[in-house]
Amino acid sequence: MPQLGFGVWQVPDEEAASVVAEALKAGYRSIDTAAAYGNESGVGEAIANVDRDELFVTTKLWNTDHGYDATLRAFDESAKKLKLDVLDLYLIHWPMPARDLYVDTWKAFVELQKDGRIRAIGVSNFQPAHLRRLIDETGVVPAVNQVELHPYLQQADLRAFHAEHGVQTEAWSPLGQGGELLSDPVVTEIAARHNRSAAQVVLRWHVQLGNVVIPKSVTPSRIRENIAVFDFELSGEEMAALSTLDRGDRIGPNPDEFN
Ligand code: NAD
After folding, report:
1. Which position among 95, 119, 128, 244 has the lowest Cβ density within 10 Å, counted as fewest Cβ atoms?
2. pLDDT digits (tens, 9 = 90+) for 183-199
3. 94-129 in b/e burial notation, b at 16+ Cβ within 10 A?
4. Measured between alpha carbons, how far is 86 from 229 in angstroms, rounded to an integer?
5. Given 37, 90, 102, 152, which residue is catalytic?
6. Best mutation site among 173, 213, 223 for ligand 1, i.e. most ligand atoms within 8 A of its Cβ?
7. How many whole angstroms separate alpha carbon 101 and alpha carbon 65?
8. Residues 6 or more apart in contact with residue 231 via CB below 8 angstroms
9. DSSP SS3 for 154
10. What is the pLDDT of residues 140-179, one digit of tens each?
11. Which pTM value belongs to this model?
12. Which residues pair with 170 in a beta bridge?
């Protein structure tokens, strides 16, 4: 899985083909979409022209499709829209603990992977308790957990659980959705020192921590800027300074309560 990919949340279906084409031109090879984003068709159109072996495509099962049979149907629908015979990574978008169907959903994921329809299966927004249950009840460890993660929400406990169980941490909203974080003085001072943008410094912090990141932008210059983070390095001191920014601030919902 490429360590840096392109996220397409909030990109309308009719714009997705051109925005993703821009990202492909800039060198991205990993695209992160979801059934809920309503743009799998546009993404499918953009990737149809690229050598399949060079692409890594992720999509996610939406909350209303939890359950064994519903999952199989939802997967077929997503694969059809993306025009893919084999998907690289399929994620359960949210655990929805109050509905209590994520274990059955996971069993369908395991089956789809056995059938060769998906290369890797994972989850999103799972807390340690949800991960532990999947592992205990099915014996199959998710390859990836995609969670909200940025310098204001560093998820230390979850990252430690991932490291212990061999789950890859993937950061959504890696730039904190481009808000206050990108004008935080700690970030902008480091950026000035390296002659880089604040967004590049934050993405580089993720990369050095070992996170997979999927920044989103529809602006061509930013799309290019966000992938240009592999030719500079933050010092130990700079990494430590960025680590002091953690304040447990979620932008999105708490997965334990989102149903
Ligand atoms: P992000 O942290 O990637 O921020 C994107 C926003 O930051 C842009 O809309 C823009 O306003 C700004 N931005 C981007 N590049 C910039 C730059 N170089 N300089 C200044 N500002 C810049 O936020 P996101 O879109 O929420 O997250 C990225 C991806 O993560 C999504 O597109 C989606 O694929 C995924 N995601 C997944 C979940 C989930 O529940 N699994 C939830 C949210 C997002």
Report:
1. 244
2. 999 999 999 999 999 99
3. bbbbeeebbbebbbbbebbbeeebbebbbbbbbbee
4. 30
5. 37
6. 173
7. 10
8. none
9. coil
10. 999 999 999 999 999 999 999 999 999 999 999 999 999 9
11. 0.99
12. 146, 212
Q: Spell 158-191 as b/e; 16+ CB within 10 A means b.
A: bbebbeeeebbbbbbbbbbbbeebbebebbeebb
| Torsion angle in degrees (nearest 10) through CA of 58, 64, 68, 71 | -30
Q: What is the ipTM of this complex?
A: 0.99
CATH number for the domain running over 6-178+202-228? 3.20.20.100
CB atoms within 10 A of CB 77: 12
Q: Is 227 helix (H, G, I), strand (E, B) or coil?
A: helix
Task: Name the strands in the sheet holding 144-148, side by side, starting at the edge strand that comes first in the sequence.
Answer: 6-7, 30-32, 56-61, 87-92, 118-124, 144-148, 168-172, 212-213
